Amino acid sequence: MERFFGLKEVNSSYRTEILGGIATFLTMTYIIFVNPAILTEAIPGVTANPTLHQQFFGAFMVATIIAMASSTLVMGLLANYPFALAPGMGLNAYFTYVVCLKMGIDWRDALGAVFVEGIIFIVLTLVGARTFIVRAIPRSVKFSSSAGIGIFLAFIGMKGSGVIAADPNTFVTLGKITSPQSLTCILGLFIITTLFVLKIPGSVLIGILLATIFGSFVGVTHFKGIVGAIPDISPTFFKLNVSWDSLATPAFWIVVMTFFFADFFDTAGTLSGLSNAAGFANREGDLPRSGKAYMADAIGTVLGALFGTSTVTTYIESGAGIAQGARTGLASVVTALLMLSALFFAPLAMSIPTAATAPALIFIGALMMVNLKDLEWSDVTEALPAFITIVAMPLTFSIANGIALGMITFTLVKLCSGKLKQIHWLTGVLSFAFVLYFIYLH
Length: 442
Known about the structure:
Elements: H1 2-5, H2 14-28, H3 31-39, H4 50-79, E1 85-87, H5 89-100, H6 107-126, H7 129-135, H8 139-161, E2 164-167, E3 171-174, H9 180-197, H10 203-217, H11 244-247, H12 250-278, H13 290-307, E4 312-314, H14 319-323, H15 329-350, H16 354-367, H17 380-396, H18 399-416, H19 425-440
Antiparallel strand pairs: 1-4, 2-3
Helix pairs in contact: 2-15, 3-4, 3-5, 4-13, 4-15, 6-12, 6-13, 8-12, 8-16, 8-17, 8-18, 9-10, 9-16, 10-16, 12-18, 17-18, 18-19
C-alpha cells in the first residue's frame, strides 16, 4: 500500500494520511444532510406530505453518501490525490430552484441532464480536451484562484458560525461574536492555530473535536445518537430520464450546458487552488495527473445521477485534509470509507455542529493565501485579473464565476495594453464564450 500511494515520495505516513482523511470528512459531513434538504424541494408536493418527504429525504441522503464515497474513492485510487468529491452546493441549488421550480423541468429530466453532462465530461477527459482547456487558463488566474478559494472558505466558515451575518443595507456585517456558535468557532480557530504552530500532529482534527466538546457545554452541540437505520434509496435510484423527447428539447440542452459550465470551471478552479496550496502543481500552475483527477470528477457526476443526486464536483473542504498533511490518495480512501460509514452512523455525524468545523475552514483559508507571493503585482495586466478572480469567488459565491470574470479581465486588459501575443488563442475563445454565457444563460 505504501508503494501504491507513494507515501515516501511525498514524505508522508499512514498516520498523516488517515488524520487528513478524517479531517476532510468532518468538514464535509454537513453535505450529507444539506444536499437532501435542497433536492427534496425539487419534487412537487413532497414538502407538504411528511411521510413522502421523509422517504425522499432518506433516498436523497443515501444517494448523496454513495455518490460522495464512490467518486472520492475513484479520486484516491485512480488519481492518487487527497481530494474529496460531493454534490456541488451551488449546483444543487440551481438544480432545484432554477431548473425544476423556475423552468418547470421534472426532477427526473434534470437528473438526465446531469447524466448527459457527466458523459460529455468523460469523453472530453478521454481525448485530453479538458486538460488542454484548463492549461489555457492564464497563470495569474490559476495562482490567484487558490487565494480566492481561501477567502471563499473563510467566508463559508464565518457565515456558518455566525461570526458574520446578512444585513439588508450592507449585505453582510459582523454577527454576534459573543453567541455560543461564534465563541465555539473562535475557540476552535485558536486551538487549531496554536497546535499547528507547535507542530502537533492532527491539529485541525483535534481543533474540530475540542470545539465540538466545548459546544456541548454552551448548547451548540446536540448529541443525536450513534447508529441509525439506512433509508430506502428506491425513490431516486435510476429514476433519471434521458429520452429522445428531452434530447430534442432546447431547454434540456440549456440546462446541460449550464451544469457543464459551472461544473467544469468550479472543478478546474478547485483543483488548481488546492494543488497550488499543497505544492502539487508545477511551475506553470498545472496539476500532474490532472486527466485522472478530472476523470474521477466526471465518473462521480455520472454515478451521482444514477443514484439520484445533482452534479458531483471536487470540494474545497479537501483543504482540511491537506492542511493536516495529507498528500496522497490514501487520505481520499479514508474519507470515502468514513462517508460510507455515515450510512450507519448518520446520527453521530450529525452531532458535529457547523460551528465546530467552521474554524477549520477559516484556518485553511488563511493557509491558501500563500500563492499570492508568486503573482506579478507590479504588472497591472497580471494583477487586475488576479484581483478580480480573488474577490469574485466569495462575493458571487461561485468559484466558476471567479475563473470566468478573471479570464475575461485578463483578455481585455492584455488586448487594451497591446499585449495580444500573451493571450492564448483558447483563452480568447473561452473569454468570449463566458461573455455570451453571462448575457444569455446566467
